[in-house]
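COURSE: Structural Biology Practicum
ASSIGNMENT: Worksheet 4, Part C
STUDENT ID: 0417
INSTRUCTIONS: Below are two proteins. For each, the amino acid sequence is given first, followed by its structure token string. Answer the questions at the end about the second protein only.

PROTEIN I
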Amino acid sequence: MNEEVTLPAVLGEEILAHCRAVRPEEGCGLVAADASGRPVAVIPIANALHSPVRYQMDTREQFDAMKRIRREGWSLWGIFHSHPHSEPSPSPTDIRLAYYPECYYLIVGLSTDPPKLRCFTMVDGRVSEAALTLVP
């Protein structure tokens, strides 16, 4: 881990709540940041695959979320999804489909109680974990 990332605890709780609510399917969504780069909003998006092992964001909801991010003057900070039955580590599919190198990838592992939330960067197939701290 060579990078430290902070996320407001309230946003971390929103991510966990969404992922728990859609379990046993993988939950997914976006995290937006303000002009200073500080995460300010979680935007849950339906998993169009309704799968416990894969996710694909609903196209319409993702489009609407990106419009909202632009309208608010925000930027895309992160992409999150859950692993309902396994550790929160990037799968080969997660790595292959990591198309946003400028974003953080947050993965929730729901196989433990409490769930684990981890943060990664994925660039050209290279994965690095960032030390994630939830702040008040």
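PROTEIN II
(use this one for the questions)
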Amino acid sequence: MPVAIITGASKGLGRALAAALAERGWDLVLDARTESVLGDTARELAGHGGRVHAVAGDVTDAEHRGELIARARALGGLDLLVNNASALGAEPLVRLDALALEGLRRALETNVVAALGLVQQALPLLRASRAGGAVINVSSDAGAEAYETWGGYGASKAALDQLSAVLGAEEPALRVWAVDPGDMGTDLYRAAVPDDADPRPLPGTVVPAFLRLLDERPVSGRYDAPSLLVAS
């Protein structure tokens, strides 16, 4: 069975994608910071038949990242790495003139530095994947558009996009996709903009876009889920 590591997998998009892969028989290594919630998710997904390892921790911790890789290796290798864990930098979001620099550092450390750290540790297994290794870095339209109060988070996602593009050029045998999932009703969004009462699509509605990438394996690059869904 193919093996995937998914960070930020206890809720939201990470959980929805993990559930879809579990239904396809994938073996999973799931990360999140809250052990109890992650454990509940892992137990539910294990009912689909694939093996599920839940590893609670913070992706900014190098030892924790190493444990994720070790669990994948124990499952037989690694075919897909999904860097989904994210930090906003401020909750709720604030304008740049009020953004604490420590918050910006946290966003960059989680969304960029930790993502690269995990990629670096995962590359030997991804290169050895018989199915063809792939990396999905979950991006945001805030990394490409200028939205008030989204400056710190958007800057981190723009950096992640560039990291993804360079990795794709440096690793032509792999697939490296930066994916903007579009608007979603997640805990992260509610923490970012708690006063927004407009309903947002559930994360599960964009999962078919991610599955399409895995099925069709287009060239490395930046993709947005709404376009992939329209074209499917």
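ANSWER KEY EXCERPT:
Q1: The two ends are 26 Å apart (CA to CA).
Q2: The domain at 3-231 is CATH 3.40.50.720 (Rossmann fold).
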